[in-house]
Amino acid sequence: MDKVFISQLHVDTIIGVYDFEKETKQSLYFDIEMLCDIKPAAKTDDINLALDYSKVSERVIAHTTAKPLELLETLVEQLAAIILAEFNTDEVTIRVSKPAAVAQANTVGVQITRRKAS
Ligand SMILES: Nc1nc2c(c(=O)[nH]1)N=C([C@H](O)[C@@H](O)CO)CN2
Question: In what order do the strands lie in the sheet with 91-97?
């Protein structure tokens, strides 16, 4: 199966468990892969038949900045449900990185894969 992907989508937002995290935005970076069949878009050269990575990116940014959350787990589950419901893909993998969270680490984060219920 083909994939449409988004790499290192940068979003600044309020997220975190601790009080100090509820006042200052932090950077998150998203890597997203969505299974799809690219042939209809390729045959017609029509964006309307493509899984539009610009529209997915806009939706991820809008949701991530809409309401403060504590856990990365909550955020990626919500985003996976939105992508599966609103876009033409049966399986999505989302990896979110929060590089400022652990000073001694290059980055930390969470990755999930979710499928549309059959
Ligand atoms: N599995 C997780 N562990 C932690 C999270 C998280 O969202 N998922 N969050 C924090 C804090 O908010 C951290 O980022 C602040 O340093 C700690 N562990």
Answer: 2-13, 26-36, 91-97, 109-115
Could you please state the CATH topology (level 3) that the domain comprising 2-115 is classified under.
Answer: GTP Cyclohydrolase I, domain 2 (3.30.1130)
Please name the helix (run of DSSP H) or strand (run of DSSP E) that holds residue 5, with its range, or none. Answer: strand 2-13
Phi, psi of 20 (to 5 degrees): -65, -20
pLDDT in tens, 48-65: 999 999 999 999 999 999
Q: How confident is the model at residue 118 (pLDDT cuts 50, 70, 90)?
A: confident
Closest C-alpha to 3, from 66, 51, 72: 51
Q: List the residue whose alpha carbon is closest to atom 15 of ligand 1.
A: 101
* Pocket of ligand 1, beta carbon within 6 A: 16-18, 21, 71-73, 98, 101, 110
User: What are the boundaries of each domain within the chain?
Assistant: 2-115
